[in-house]
From TrEMBL, chains A, B:
Transmembrane region(s): none
Spans annotated as Disordered: 1-40
Keyword Ribosomal protein applies: no
Alphabetized SMART domains for the sequence: Ald_Xan_dh_C
Keyword hit for Oxidoreductase: yes
Protein name, per record: Molybdopterin-dependent oxidoreductase
GO molecular function, one term: oxidoreductase activity
Basic and acidic residues: bias regions: 1-30
Keyword field: Molybdenum, Oxidoreductase
Length: 774, 774
């Protein structure tokens, strides 16, 4: 891997000792030794185990649920149906943005309230002394269903003949919205030299975290503690408090080690909620752990957009306007804000380009499939896929090199901050260097001239230039100095693989002139952290890091006042490094940080200063930080079989100041792997009865190492002005850029056959058929 | 019980809805139902149990410790001696203020390091699968001792023939100090019309908390969690971190329900420390629970002052000066700051009086007895006992009524703040009303004229006017508003019976215009609270309450800004009551506190305002608040047997603003009961070999209900300017006032016999002997 370090901002960053350093992850030793403590690893004395009875049907009335036989079985503690929940003091539904939906739609009930709306929906729950006894007893619950017609496709669900998912929402359109200026866009299209259009499917995906979702709920004093696989412990506490109708302060949510999330561990699902409900009812610990199959069936899915789109441009390659109309599948129930999420995807439709007019119409549509919610990227991959496929199509239409087409439309570095026609305001950017580096690194010119390899496979190179909005919402950060000088930093984000403990410790260490090893980082416990928004949307370093930096600076300022008092100097004259405060120009006079910490908690504080040495910040950037980059994929397509191999992959990313380059690259590698697999393999498939056909890892095709190419990473550094670290998020870049880069490469390879599009996943049959049909 | 409510400050307090209200303790229902969770109640999976082998000798060299037989017994996990601790990475000693002691004195080792210095000192420890197996195995540990001479009396330990406790401190004087002005006092004594003197013993006491000390130490992730009977969880975390040589951040100390403390649960003892050391070493939970006998033998004792004192005064009753010289027994080891504590007792020697000159010399002396440290009152009872006994003696010398003698010397209400000749600065006071009320309530004039009752018993009335320094050090307080409007208040103090959850909730409720039931209070967990000093020295409401009020006010101010924004009003114009913000003069416009809380965590905040609704304060009063009062005891003495009965007791206290009068009275009742028992019954007795003769409840004579008289309480209210509540502490008043009040009453009863003093405890033989010998 090449790493070029030449930007002036990187130069400045060298002042920092640890920010910018590729330190090893402090999380790894325990995980590699098998000492991680994941939710299902937690032993609670007297724990019972909850297993769901799930609907085999996508759409049906539940006529009768008979639990008597199950209740009589050995080791069974209880069996519950909706009637039990309804009779309790909890309303038992996942929150939904009711007032913002088209129609009267109830929240997802923890157990079916008389109807099921997707295969796998929980209908009853059995609690037993072991998970095996519970599973056996769940088999013994008899449910009588009256089947109804299924509908799995969003566009079809809007049709007149489609079954109605909710009576209060007869057309199945949960929510709809538009972005941009329709009249201006119409005018641009009318005036432009050329228009290209595409019908695109952003294939439905299923998150495959290493660890399935799980929860262990148990009474803790008068309160309830829920350990769970969470990306957002405070968010889940709010969700659970809502569903259980208890005050938030009576709940403690703890997220221990979490093995991946990709979004679905930030959502409010029935499993965790039912475990919490049952633990309160039984006054004993209840554990629920999803099987891998249950995660496929009933964990929130992602993507599933069907889009008709068009790009208007002139003969010189200048883009004039963009139109998109999307049906987004939200599945059988709203899950939190899931129906509203697709309405905002269009905000990124300008990408890196100066697009004068944009109009985007989106409908979120109920179908009888599992709920769909944000999945790594959460709208950004959908937008960039539309844009970058159109860009390629337009370049081909003009016969212009796609790189050159991009160059002609890039927003110039002096344009920032800039508001796009899609309504997004970009903070900073310098796009062309990343594009040129990607071209250089992939040996673009040579590839453009190569049609086939020696083995006869067709060669293609595809580009994707993208922006990624990162760092929304607020986060709390506490930096606490103990009397012995040790430091603990608390953040409301939660690492589920990101390595925040490593990153945040580097950040605090620089601010407090100490070694990262002397900084503890705490996340994932609502009892220890003021408030958290969580880890998603590439926000943690930007927002959580920002909060921690603000607190660390406040701590440093107070510490400096104490040190100055001790050294009989002006606070402005003391410098902190290597655990010592020194007077500038008189380095022999010093006081240790530990002595300052002791003084802050003792009686040697400066007159009038409060005791303690800690600070709490709630940081929220005024606007999002827009990471960007250009990725290039090289594919080889077997003309005999249609099989596509990604041969090489170049990722040039700019996420502003990089706190830990190794972790940044890890994020890029993982995202690219996921993006390539979306492009080539992954797809949730429902049959027409609404039965999930891709319900196992083998059927669904998760990425494996053999299918991930060598990934070459480079970077530029354009700091963000939105946060004290100058950082931009990097968690989703790969999933955004890789799908269009790979599909563009396939189209490039198939150019001799006149193929202008192949839908994702680009499987051999589809390629073969496209070659044949063109 | 009469309660007069007529002071103007009480009038002002009626503005507050809940401060001043005698609400029931929210702690009681669970405790009364047996649902309290005390340390020994906690079940930890795989817990092992630690039992000490304790020295039967007061002073001996430990020649050999043989643990092999114990280690071979069923269920024994390990047996440890000092050699194991010494070879570990922990220094294993209780901290001591080494540099401030006279000589080279090591800290108390968790296991004997070659010598034992008090009966009951831990010599070895056995860990086994059950406490019974551990106790059996401890019996099997063979220890060979080489006995040395014991010395149990502080004055004797200073003698030339006394055995040396520490070689580095040959005269056994651990520390010494003086207060006041010797020359001025000498001059006052030379110039005064009269001088009286007394030799006084403040008898050695042993704390008798309902719950003995206990600890359960267990690994929690990479850290160690120690649940323990603590008055000061953060203080104990610092102590444990020190003894174990680990960073504070690697320890979590939790104090669950704690059944009384009286000081000794704030100290750093071997038991809790050894459990923590063993849990780290074994990497499994280790529980240690003191037996009642062990608490007698080796829990820190209290008092044990021997004082020679004198008062100089003029014929008109005006006090001219006071002298005191004290030997304070600190036992066989320093325990934290224990040798320094007695050096400050003299600060209260002026009491309520204008004493122009004071000189006090104090020596803390090592003896071969259990360590002595602060016990409810912690120096205050010792000082007031000296003063009030001298005052009585002086009045008798003059033939003046003791109440009149006091009146002539009281500091006048316009004197405050005032610095006494003993170096204390009193914040506020109005002493005469409390004195007069006490006289009135006890029917003083009648009693003064009564020599005997109809049953022939001698009647006596005794007074004690006192001040009590309260509220030292800092405390942290967090007030956190959750998004649903619920409130949690966190304080660094820890209730071990005081009812802080009730009190603090009242305080927060008034500040935030809500009901106390909607305020949760959290104490006792170092992971949830920024930093704590603890509950002792009558400081919790003053300092912890002050910190919580400061935070609540900051929260209210921010909430008002949000409400004003919502109501389009000026923040100064919105009022908060009953959970609603309203505009003054336009009550129909309102926004709920819960809606404001939601807005603070959402996106509807006023421009530029940080998210969140919480505040953290570190509050430290600039100086102590001095509570005061006058107590009166009425005794009947049987001239045949010398038996003393306290017939009636009047307590008039002024602790400034009283947050919850019921809890204030509870503190007075408990303290008076303890004080009466010190006066009449309690005493730790060592024989000349240093064997504790009073090692059981029956031998030691703890208070029982039958010996506690009717206690009549009244109060005045002189707010303290030192803290936002205007409160003064009340936790120790009874233990301060009751001993001199009772002894003065006994002397009053025995006046016909010419008895001018009887030492505490005033037992029948002593009374009988005094009557005979006078």
């Amino acid at each position: 891997m090449t790493e070029r370090e030449e930007s002036p901002t990187e130069e400045q960053a060298r002042d920092a000792r640890f920010v910018g350093s590729a330190r090893e992850r402090r999380e790894d030793p325990a995980l590699l030794r098998g000492e991680g403590q994941f939710t299902d690893d937690i032993d609670a004395p007297d724990a019972s185990h909850l297993v769901f009875v799930r609907s085999p049907h996508a759409h049906a009335d539940v006529v009768e649920v008979e639990t008597a036989r199950a209740e009589g079985m050995d080791g069974v503690v209880a069996a519950y149906t909706w009637a039990d929940v309804e009779a309790s003091d909890a309303h038992g539904r996942m929150g939904a943005p009711t007032e913002r939906l088209n129609g009267d739609v109830p929240g997802h009930p923890v157990l079916a309230d008389g109807r099921v709306r997707y295969q796998g929906q929980p209908v009853a729950a059995v609690v037993a002394e072991s998970p095996y006894l519970a599973a056996d007893a769940a088999e013994a619950v008899a449910v009588e269903y009256d089947r109804l017609d299924a509908v799995t496709d969003a566009a079809a669900a809007r049709g007149d003949d489609a079954p109605t998912v909710f009576e209060g929402c007869p057309d199945n359109v949960a929510a709809s919205g538009e972005l941009g200026d329709e009249a201006a866009t119409d005018a641009a299209f009318a005036d432009a030299d050329r228009v290209v259009d595409l019908d695109l499917v952003n294939n439905r995906l299923i998150p495959n975290a290493l660890e399935p979702r799980a929860a262990l709920a148990r009474p803790e004093g008068d309160r309830l503690r829920v350990d769970m696989t969470s990306q957002s412990p405070h968010g889940h506490r709010s969700d659970l408090a809502d569903a259980l109708d208890v005050p938030e302060r009576d709940l403690r949510v703890v997220a221990p080690d979490v093995g991946g999330g990709f979004g679905h561990k930030g959502h409010h699902h029935p499993g965790e909620t039912m475990a919490a409900w049952a633990a309160r009812r039984l006054d004993r610990p209840v554990k629920w752990t999803a099987t891998r199959s249950e995660n496929y069936l009933a964990g929130a899915h992602g993507r599933d957009h069907v889009t008709t789109c068009a790009l208007a441009f002139d003969d010189d390659g200048r883009i004039r306007g963009l139109r998109a109309e999307t049906d987004a599948n939200v599945g059988g129930y709203p899950l939190g804000s899931s129906p509203l999420l697709p309405l905002w995807y269009g905000r990124l439709l300008a990408g890196q380009y100066d697009v004068p007019a944009i109009h985007c119409v989106t409908r979120s549509v109920f179908t009888t499939t599992a709920p769909v919610h944000s999945y790594r990227g959460a709208g950004r991959p959908e937008a960039i896929y539309v844009l970058e496929r159109l860009v390629r199509r337009a370049a081909d239409d003009l016969g212009m090199d796609p790189a050159e087409f991009r160059r002609r439309n890039l927003l110039p570095p002096d344009a920032f901050p800039v508001e796009t026609a899609a309504g997004a305001t970009y903070d900073s950017g310098d796009y062309e260097p990343a594009l040129e580096r990607a071209l250089d690194a992939v040996d673009y010119e040579t590839l453009r001239e190569t049609e086939t390899r020696d083995d006869g496979r067709l060669v293609g190179v595809g580009l994707a230039s993208f922006v990624e909005s990162t760092g929304g919402g607020f986060e709390s950060g506490v930096v606490r100095v103990h009397p012995d000088g040790g430091v603990t930093a608390f953040a409301g984000t939660h690492s589920h693989g990101q390595g925040h403990a490593t990153t945040y410790a580097q950040v605090v260490a620089d601010e407090l002139g100490m070694n990262p090893d002397d900084v503890d980082v705490v996340e994932g416990d609502t009892d220890r952290i003021p408030r958290g928004t969580g880890t998603f949307g590439s926000r943690s370093v930007v927002v959580g890091g920002g909060a921690i930096v603000e607190s660390a600076r406040e701590v440093r300022e107070k510490a400096a006042r104490i040190a100055a008092d001790e050294l009989e100097a002006d606070p402005g004259d003391v410098e902190l490094a290597d655990g010592e405060f020194r007077i500038a120009g008189a380095p022999e006079r010093s006081v240790s940080f530990a002595a300052v910490a002791a003084a802050a908690h003792g009686s040697d504080r400066p007159e009038g200063m409060d005791a303690g040495l800690e600070a709490t910040s709630f940081f929220e950037p005024e606007r999002s930080a827009y990471a960007f980059g250009t990725h290039a994929a090289v594919v080889a397509v077997d003309p005999e079989t249609g099989e596509v191999e990604v041969d090489r992959y170049v990722a040039v990313d700019d996420c502003g100041v990089r706190v830990n380059p190794t972790l940044v690259e890890g994020q890029i590698h993982g995202g690219v792997a996921q993006g390539i697999r979306q492009a080539l393999h992954e797809r949730a498939v429902y049959d027409e009865d609404g039965t999930l056909a891709s319900g196992t890892m083998a059927d669904y095709k998760v990425p494996d190492a053999g299918h991930v190419p060598e990934i070459h990473t480079e970077h530029t550094v354009t700091p963000s002005p939105t946060n004290p670290l100058g950082a931009k998020g990097i968690g989703e870049a790969g999933t955004i850029a890789a799908p269009p880069a790979v599909v563009n490469a396939v189209v490039d390879a198939l150019a001799p056959y006149g193929v202008d599009h192949v839908d994702m996943p680009v499987t051999p049959p589809r390629v073969w058929r496209a070659m044949r049909d063109s």
